[in-house]
């Protein structure tokens, strides 16, 4: 109780802009944290906390994007032609509850992820590996308890054994994703979560764990444990019983501060060690070179970002009249490819690079990082072209769109200067083409946008994808397949693209996979399901007394936070 009281006092002090203590990391974020349950962690704001409270079986080694090393596992072997993985598990590890970590906890974790596998989670790619389908048992009636139970088991030697129906060269990398962190099975069951038994598994199929009891009161094996979380702040403290090296940072305070100016003021005064910035142009002007600021530039970018144009908008509140009469749009407004092409030509990519990325950005041909296999730099790209935008708008809906006009309402992530600027660029250019064209843009809380976009209730949004594991399938299937994770937010389908993507994920021939992904890129250019946003050159900044922040330590696959490291690897001088 004393520690809780002390951290509550610490929160009050940091809220009042008292200087950040040496043993405390203060991070001011623009967004809320949707969940702390690993079983449904699938956004960056949640992941940056979950990966420090919980731990996975293995993790990425140093700054490598592909080399893996043990974490809760100590070693593993692959047998049965690449379809069986056997893990030795670390001894002497305790959860924050005091319970000992055992193989039963690991088995429970992965079975729980396969059982629930909700649309809000990233468990689809685990299910693809272990069950041969990304669906849960509600959506695929062939999934039985026997299949789930057989996929992951503890043997008599206390080893964790995965049995795959087919070879998956990306399986180990998938296990390093924060959403596959091991949870405390006895503790979770005691809270009222699934008890891990066959008798109750059907009750939990497809269940959204975002607001689960475990999300409210987590128990992991990580170097930090949760002390308190509310809508404005999250407090964590170093776990005294941690099995690894004791962290130098004892307390972590994450505050939600929506206003960029307030975050900047706190950072420059030393009251916050890390903040969400406002994009390169803003950060270079307002932060870089200032006293007490460390700036690390030219870092790898492994994300992809785009405007989503939803072809089946399931939210009447965004449709206005619901008709193509100038006062609204039909739910299928973006189903006409000419509309999508027109919007793609109406966005000023070069202006975005200058205004948001301070000139350090580049257009991509596909929604795939250019350092990944499968990227084809020769695929055509859209450029800002007023004449072509006008021409495609005039073709749309047989000329009715140009004649009648439209009113579109688009939401962007609250607190994101980059997203707001991008929306403003598009709005200005589209409205300049025809006085009957109108785009209303508005800020929206991130957690609400995540849920509504998943339910197909956003008309146009800007969303990004950070890799779950280092394989092009994680981007190409996610963005372009009608069975991909992002499809409910887009509702675009192309049978030929689906065929190519399935072929690519079922061959280990790199040359053939590259050929197939190139075909997808070319077809996507022609159909324009997304407006591809320029990719930034990554950079990070922090207070210069924060040790452990460097290009050598930075790994975009490990950490969602603004340091590219785990909290336990940081200290202050």
Automatic annotation (TrEMBL):
PROSITE patterns: SBP_BACTERIAL_5 (PS01040). Keywords: Signal. The keyword Signal applies. It holds the Pfam family SBP_bac_5. InterPro entries: Peptide/Ni-bd (IPR030678), SBP_5 (IPR039424), SBP_5_CS (IPR023765), SBP_5_dom (IPR000914). GO terms for molecular function: peptide transmembrane transporter activity. Residues 1-18 form the signal peptide. GO terms for biological process: peptide transport. Residues 67-486 form the Solute-binding protein family domain. The keyword Signal applies. Coiled coil: none annotated. GO terms for cellular component: ATP-binding cassette (ABC) transporter complex; periplasmic space. CDD domains: PBP2_NikA_DppA_OppA_like_7. Belongs to the bacterial solute-binding protein 5 family. This is Peptide ABC transporter substrate-binding protein.
């Amino acid at each position: 109780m004393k520690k809780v009281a002390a951290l509550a006092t610490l929160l009050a002090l940091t809220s009042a802009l008292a200087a950040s203590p040496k043993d405390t990391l203060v991070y001011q974020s623009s967004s809320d944290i949707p969940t702390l349950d690993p079983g449904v962690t699938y956004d960056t704001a949640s992941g940056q906390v979950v990966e420090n409270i919980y731990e996975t079986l293995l993790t990425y080694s140093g700054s490598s994007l592909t080399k893996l090393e043990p974490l809760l596992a100590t070693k593993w072997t692959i047998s049965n032609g690449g379809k069986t993985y056997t893990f030795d598990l670390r001894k002497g590890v305790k959860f924050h509850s005091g319970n000992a970590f055992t193989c039963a906890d690991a088995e429970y974790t992965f079975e729980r992820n396969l059982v629930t596998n909700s649309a809000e989670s990233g468990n689809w790619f685990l299910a693809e590996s272990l069950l041969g389908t990304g669906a849960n048992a509600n959506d695929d009636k062939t999934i039985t308890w026997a299949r789930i139970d057989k996929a992951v088991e503890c043997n008599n030697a206390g080893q964790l054994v995965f049995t795959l129906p087919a070879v998956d060269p990306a399986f180990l990398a998938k296990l390093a994703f924060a959403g596959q962190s091991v949870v405390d099975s006895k503790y979770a069951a005691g809270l009222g979560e699934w008890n891990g038994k066959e008798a109750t598994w059907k009750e939990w199929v497809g269940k959204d764990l975002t607001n689960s009891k475990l999300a409210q009161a987590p128990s992991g094996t990580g170097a930090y444990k949760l002390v308190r979380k509310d809508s404005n702040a999250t407090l964590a403290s170093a776990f005294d019983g941690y099995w690894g090296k004791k962290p130098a940072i004892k307390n972590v305070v994450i505050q939600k501060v929506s206003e960029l100016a307030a975050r900047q003021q706190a950072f420059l005064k030393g009251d916050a060690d890390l903040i969400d910035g406002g994009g390169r142009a803003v950060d270079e002007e307002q932060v870089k070179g200032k006293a007490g600021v460390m700036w690390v530039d030219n870092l790898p970018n492994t994300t992809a970002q785009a405007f989503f144009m939803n072809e089946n908008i399931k939210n009447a509140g965004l449709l206005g009249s619901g008709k193509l009469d100038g006062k609204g749009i039909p739910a299928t407004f973006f189903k006409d490819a000419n509309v999508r092409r027109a919007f793609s030509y109406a966005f000023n990519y070069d202006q975005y690079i200058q205004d948001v990325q301070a000139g350090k950005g580049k257009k991509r041909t596909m929604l795939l990082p250019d350092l990944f296999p499968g990227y084809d730099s020769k695929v055509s790209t859209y450029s800002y072209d007023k004449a072509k935008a006008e021409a495609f708008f005039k073709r749309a809906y047989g000329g009715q769109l140009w004649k009648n006009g439209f009113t579109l309402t688009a939401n962007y992530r609250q607190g994101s200067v980059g997203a707001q600027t991008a929306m403003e660029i598009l709005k200005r250019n589209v409205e300049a083409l025809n006085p009957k064209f109108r785009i209303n843009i508005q800020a929206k809380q991130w957690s609400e946008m995540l849920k509504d976009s998943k339910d197909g209730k956003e008309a146009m949004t800007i969303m990004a994808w950070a890799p779950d594991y280092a394989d092009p399938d994680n981007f190409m299937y996610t963005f372009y397949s009608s069975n991909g994770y992002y499809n409910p937010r887009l509702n675009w389908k192309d049978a030929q693209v689906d065929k190519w993507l399935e072929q690519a994920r079922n061959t280990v021939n790199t040359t053939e996979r590259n050929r197939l992904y190139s075909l997808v890129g070319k077809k996507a250019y022609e159909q324009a399901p997304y407006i591809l946003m320029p990719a930034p050159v990554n950079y990070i900044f922090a207070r210069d007394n924060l040790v452990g922040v460097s290009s050598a330590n930075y790994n975009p696959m490990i950490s969602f936070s603004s340091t590219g490291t785990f909290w336990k690897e940081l200290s202050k001088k």
